[in-house]
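User: Show me a protein chain along with its predicted structure.
Assistant: Here is one chain, sequence first, then structure tokens.
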Amino acid sequence: MGSRRRRRYHGGCAAPGVACWAVALLLLMLAFHCVLSPPLGDGGRNDPSRPQSPTFVQSNNLGELRRNVLAMGTNAQASNVLGDGSKMGEELWDSGAGNDFYGCSNASTEFAGAEANTESNRYLMIEASGGLNQQRTGIIDAVVAARILKATLVIPKLDQKSFWEDSSDFSDIFDAHYFISSLSKDVKIIQQLPDTISKKSLPYKIRVPRKCTPLCYDNRVLPALLKKNVVQLTKFDYRVSNRLETYLQKLRCRVNYHALRFTDTIHKMGETLVQRMREKSGGRFIALHLRFEPDMLAFSGCYFGGGETERRELGTIRKRWKTLHEANSDRERRHGKCPLTPEEVGLMLRALGFGRGVHIYVASGDVYGGEETLAPLKALFPNFYSKEILASKEELEPFLPFSSRMAALDFVVCDQSNVFVTNNNGNMARMLAGRRRYFGHKRTIRPNTRKLNSLFLNRTSMSWDRFASEVQTFQKGFMGEPNEVEPGRGGFYEYPLDCICKKSKARTEHKDTTDIMENHLAGREDCDLDFLEHTPLPAGSSNETESDYSHGNGLDIPEIDDVISD
């Protein structure tokens, strides 16, 4: 019998020697490749030849989110991966298309002068309610109402008894003499009632409904004015229709953008803040209207991860609005009705392409959560400023006791910033957005809260490159471009399209904005059609489309008295 051949084992390889060595070498190469290669799906972020972009893991736990953002913000290499521009380049700071448009609010030759339009023994008084920008709408509409009623307007009184308890008069905030003189051809305005009139009787008080049309004023106010000679309209905010003939819309623009000028004291301090921001930034800066104060968060009905303490504190504030129902935070967030947190705003701006070195001016009251809430935003943008940081206590002392004057300082800085970012759609945001459109479509960014909130909520892990790409896609149509809203849609103070014309060789003012603007809403899934009217637009008028407080896609938080004034 022949002997049995002994089988040799080579590390589990049953092949002949040469084949086994080949297999071993192949396995060694694969193992080495696995060590050097980036994880699947990270887009090669660990490639040492590429700049390292931060990976941000979203969690419903706000504390964990903050830690992730702070880690990203303190990583020097990651923080500087994005420069002062993105794929948009310089257009991130300034819309080139905006140069093709200009504000046009001059009265036509058919517009009768104030003397011809004003009847004797008709005096209109108003009480403008709310905060600074809510009062501003009341003042503007008071001029329009006086024009409709052919009455002499008495300088408006400002609300001094509501939530803000600000004792400022009209002349403490606005230049009253300039206001009267600049509108002298449109409406007759006086400082106070003549003694012969004021001694006869007290003014007859009326509260007109919101969005009262010219016909409404003729029916509800004019009879009393003819009988009593002096009528005072109370709680005067949003009491004139958004839909008006073009000549009245242009009057609104003349009041808002030209006649309403802050006092020299406010203007000079505001200009000082702007100058200091430009000196620190080397020229350009972002102004952020954060609006993350407790009252705004309570009104929104949203939850921001602060546990039972947050629910109790904000719930107590929310009870001020007796007409508000109990909110479903998840539903509100899905519908885009929740503001972004300061850190989310910072992430949005970084994703758009604004680098860590960009200087940011934050216009805000007391932020809910204080420094802990602001820390991630400051980590993303260390060049963080406010009026309290830029100015000394002595410089701000004349303004500190008056909330409206402090708000006016923020208004000046936000108006003159290179980029204005709003985190809500309240009165100040609308006013500034419209003003910046009128004066050349200066870059104005409004978060697409519906899409961005969804992005923050639903992602568990995502590369920074993908996150940034998603943000840039979602923000198209929310960057303050001229063609974002078609004529007749949106609130007039935010979209004063009757007062915006396209430049031409003749530079004529009669150019119809309908020929200027393109329809960019058709087929847009991010457009909330629930708040848009589809009725035909009468010739020579603007379409009133917004509800009292809702402006379609995105958050719309009124000032405190917006809800309780009625």
